[in-house]
Amino acid sequence: MWSPGEHLVIDWGVLGALHVFWAVRAWSRVRFVRFALDERRRAWRSRRALVQALAQLAGRVLPAVEVDSIIRRCDELTRAEANRIWTQHQRAPSTLPFRDYAAMTLKFWETAKARDRR
Questions:
Q1: What is the pLDDT of residues 25-78, one digit of tens each?
Q2: Among residues 13, 61, 63, 99, which is most buried (max CB within 10 A)?
């Protein structure tokens, strides 16, 4: 069984003419859902939607400029920096800025997606 905060399940789906992005906390089943007319620019939308989902599931609402800042931070993260952030998150999660946590999570998600494509 999962522990609280351990897994976030994300995916795209189609519901009639709408395309649906969702993120679900595996333990609590709390859901985050966004709708779109298509999945063009899917990678960009998925990144934005994932950051918004992480924020909403943490009880936060982020303006678009902060979402973009987190995505840029993710793009700049090296593997070593992401691992340092993860170590800090494990030791003292309350000391970690949300921006770093979200960027690290996005980086790990993208790394896992790339590995799955191989």
A1: 777 777 777 777 666 555 556 788 888 888 887 888 899 999 999 999 999 999
A2: 99
One-letter amino acid for residue 15 of the chain: L
Find out whether 26 and 2 touch, Cβ atoms under 8 Å.
yes
The whole-angstrom separation of Cα 42 and Cα 105 is 18
Altogether, the residues listed in the chain come to a count of: 118
Q: Which of 102, 74, 77 is nearest to 89 (CA)?
A: 102
What is the rounded distance in angstroms from the CA atom of residue 54 to the CA atom of residue 15?
23
Domain ranges of the chain: 8-117
pTM for the complete prediction?
A: 0.65
- How many whole angstroms from its chain centre is CA 46? 8
pLDDT of residue 117: 61
Region of 61 on the Ramachandran plot (φ > 0 left; ψ -120 to 50 alpha; else beta): beta
Torsion, Cα 51 100 61 110, to 10 degrees, reads: 0
